[in-house]
Amino acid sequence: MKITCAVVQCRVEPDRTRQRERVRGFLEEARAAGARLVLLPELVFDPYPAQCARPEGHARAEPVPGPTTAWLGEECRRLGLTAVTSLFERRLAGLGHNTAVVLDARGRLVGRYRKMHIPDDPNFFEKYYFAPGDLGFVPIRDGDLSLGTLVCWDQWFPEAARLMTLAGADLLLYPTAIGWDPRDPQPVRRRERDAWELVQRAHAVANALPVLVANRVGHEDDPSGASAGLDFWGGSFITGVFGDMTAAAGADEETVLLATLETEATEEQRRRWPFLRDRRTDAYGALVVRALPSAEDPDGASTSLETGPSPPSSR
What pairs with residue 39 in β-bridges? Predict the structure, then answer.
C-alpha cells in the first residue's frame, strides 16, 4: 500500500485561536499536495509549557475528547485526511498527560497514546505537568494502517520503537518539541541534533519501518525568566526503512515535508535483514530491571538472562 504523508514543521504562537488558523493553513497545504496523513509537532496548539514549573501552566490542559480534538476532527473531515499531534490532556483536576491523538478523515478520534517517558531536565520540566502514560505501546488503527505513535522523549528509547513494531505498527511517528538553550555553543548544538537524528534513523533500520518526525521551530521565552528560553531546532524528517532521508527540513524554516511511502517495503526489508526472526527473546530478561549487579552496586537485583529478575533478598 502506498500512502502520501506530510510532516509539518512550524512555530507556535501564544494565542491559541491564531495558532489554530496557522495549523489550518498547513493542513490545507499538505492536502493540496496530496497528503492523506499529516504529522504535526508536539503540543502544537500552545507554547511549550515545561520550561519552568508553574501552577498556571496547567491552565491550558483540556479533556480528550474536547475542544481541540473537535476542532481538529472537523478540519480532518473537511479535508479528508488523518492528523496526528499531541495535546496537554486534562484527565482529572491536577492529573494530566502529554497525549498523542489521531483524528481520521471522517473527523473521528480513533485513538490516543499517552507519552510514556517523561523528561525532567533544565528547560524540560515535564514531570511537573504530565503523569507517565498508562495505555502501553499500542499502535492506533487508521483504516488499513497501524500507526506507531510515540511522543518526543520516547524517541530516545529503542524499547518503545521495538514494542510498537512487535505490536504491528506500519509507521513510527514522533510529534516533537526539542531545542537548544540559546547559550549553548555551536559544537554542543551540532552533537545534540546529530544524536537526535541518528537515534531515530536507527529505529527505522532496526525495525524496517518508515519514521516520521515533526519538530517545531523558533524561540520561545521561559515564562519564569529563570533561563534564556528555548530555540527549537527544527530538523523534521521522514525516512524509509533503511533510515534513508526521504525528506528533511532545516533548523529555522516553517515547511510541509512530503513523502510517498510503501508499506510493502517493510516486508521486503525484513526478509533481507531478518532482525525480528533472530531476536533472542529467551535471553533478554535482564532488560526489565533498572540495573544489573556490578562492582559499584554489588547488592543490585540478581538477574537471570533466562528468567528475568529474581525476587528481592530477604535481608
Answer: 7, 84
- Taking alpha carbons only, the member of 89, 83, 79 closest to residue 37 is 83
The whole model's pTM is what? Answer: 0.94
Split at pLDDT 50, 70, 90, the class of 13 is very high
Catalytic, 115? Answer yes
Residues 6+ positions from 250 with CB-CB distance below 8 Å? 234, 235
From the CB of residue 11, how many other CB atoms can be counted at a distance below 10 Å?
A: 17
* Domains along the sequence of the chain with CATH: 2-272 (3.60.110.10), 285-315 (no CATH)
Return d(Cα 248, Cα 178) in angstroms, integer: 16
Spatial contact of 48 and 177, defined as CB atoms under 8 Å apart:
yes
Pairing assessment for the beta strands 211-214 and 171-175 based on DSSP bridges: parallel
Chain-centroid distance, C-alpha 156: 10
pLDDT at 312 over 50: no
Tell me if residue 127 is catalytic. Answer: no
pLDDT value for 300: 67
Catalytic annotation, pick one of 42, 75, 126, 220: 42
Nearest Cα to Cα of residue 112 among 83, 144, 149: 149
Query: Is residue 87 within a helix (H) or strand (E), and if so which, with residue range?
Result: strand 82-92
Q: Exactly one of 75, 89, 152, 220 is catalytic; which is it?
A: 152
The number of CA neighbours under 13 Å toward the Cβ of 123 is 19
- Tell me the per-residue pLDDT of 188-198, one tens digit each, with 9 for 90 and over: 999 999 999 99
Q: Are strands 95-103 and 109-114 parallel, antiparallel or unpaired?
A: antiparallel
308: left (phi over 0), alpha (psi -120 to 50) or beta: left
Q: How many helical (H) and strand (E) elements, i.e. helices and strands, does the chain have? A: 5, 19
Catalytic position from the list 75, 89, 115, 126: 115
Q: How far is CA 64 from the centre of its chain?
A: 18
